[in-house]
Design goal:
The structure is a single chain. The chain contains six helices and no strands. The chain is mostly helical. Helix 1 packs across helix 4 and helix 1 crosses helix 5. It has one domain.
Amino acid sequence: MLTIHNPSSPDPDEAAALALGALGFILSDDRRAQRFLDLTGLDADGLRTTLGEAATHRAIIEFLCAHEPDLVGAAQSLGVSPEALRRAGQPDFLE
């Protein structure tokens, strides 16, 4: 099988780093942080426990993608495009 790598797509380590950076953005606002916890069903301990897991990284990106102002804000905070964050949440990159 031939795999074509898109150089504009993050590798798994970059995708995980973007997700963790995005989590910092989420947690920088109490209301947004609480909304994230409420929607994901995580609590602070659960978040700490699963912080290194791809499923948590995907949940972070999906949370941002579900609310465009947060996606744009996180992207600006991280110095990347909103599309780069969207791509980082794709299962191919977060495994």
